[in-house]
Specification:
By secondary structure, this protein is an alpha+beta fold. Helix content is 44%, strand content 14%.
Length: 372
Amino acid sequence: MAVTVHVQDAMNVREVERYLRSILGEITVVGMTTLGKARSDTGAKGYGYGIPMRIDYRTGEGESKSAVLHTISPGAFGHEHMADRARELLWEYKAFNQLPRHIRAVDVGGVDPAGNIQSLGNVDELCLLTEYAEGQAYARDFEGIGETGAMSGRDIDRADALCDYLVEIHRGRSDDVSKRAELYVRRIRELVGDGECIMGLTDSYPRHPLIPVSMLEEIEHRAVRWRWKLKDYTHRPRQVHGDFHPWNILFREGADFTVLDRSRGEYGDPADDVTCLTLNYFFFSLRRDGRLQGNFERLFLRFWERYLESSGDREVLEVAAPFFAFRGLVMASPVWYPALSDAVRHRLLTFVTTVLEENRFDPRAMNRYCGA
C-alpha cells in the first residue's frame, strides 16, 4: 500500500523512519524528495498551503513503496492558529475515507518543535497519513489545450468522467435529516465569511491599481445578499468534494483518476464542485484567447449540459453565482496568481461582480459576464 503523510517541511530521516515503523511495521526509508510542482509544473499557481515531501521506503519483505509528508503552513485564509490547522487535518483524516476514489487516510499524528512525530499530548502541529497516488494533475491537460488549441478524444472522455463522478457523489446525502438545513446554512455562511473563502480572499488582496477597495467591498455586499437568498435552499446539501479543481485531480491512463484534498465539510451545495472545475475551462481560455471560445468553450458547455441532464438538478443554475464568485476571486488574486496579466485579471473580476447580479446562471453567457 502506498500512503501519504501530512507533516513539517524539513524532517529528520531517522525520525520519519521511526514514525512509519510505528504505523506500518518494519520499513527502511531510502529517499525523501519535495513534491511541490512535481505533479503539475504549469507555472500558473503561485501560492499553496504547504510543500509535500515524498518518502520512498522498503518493507521488511523488500517491497518498494512511497509516502508523502506535509503540513498546512501557518498563514492567512483561516490558518493562522495551530488549532485551525489541527481542525482541518483531523477532519481530513475521517473524511478522505468517505469519498469514492479519494486517497486513503491512514493516520493522523503530531509534530513537536524539534520535529519529532509523536502522540498529540505535546505537539506543535498535526499530521495526516494517507495513500500516495500516481498520476499527473488534470491541470496538465488544460496547459496542453492552451498551448496548441487542439483537443483529443481523451480530453472529452476525461471531462465526461469527471462530470459523471460529480453526478454520482452528489447523490449522497447526510443520514442526519435534522441537521441537513443547519449544515447547509453553515456551509453558505463559510462560503461568504470563512478565511479560505470570499471574505478571506478579499482581505488578502494587496493594493493594486486594477482592484480598488470599493470593488472588493461591493463584491462582499453582493455575496452577503446571496447568503440570505440561499437560506431558502436548505434542501440542497449533498455529498461534495469541496475543492474540485484541476490540481486536485490526478489522471493516469485514459480516464482513470484519483482525487485529492477534499475540503470544507462533507456536505454542501453541488454547485460548489461544478463551478470549481468548470471555471477552469473559462480561466485557461481567458489566458489563451481573452474570452471563452474554441475547445475550452466546447468542454465547458459539454460539462454543464451533461451535468444538468444526468443529475436532473437544474436548480443548480439558481445558486451557482456565489460559488463562481469565490473561485473567480481565487483566480484573480495577485496572491494566488501573481503572474496573471492585467487583462485576464480584469475579465475575471468583471465576471465576479456581474455574475453576482444575475438571478440565474446561464452557461452560454460567460463572455457577456466577463465583458468579452
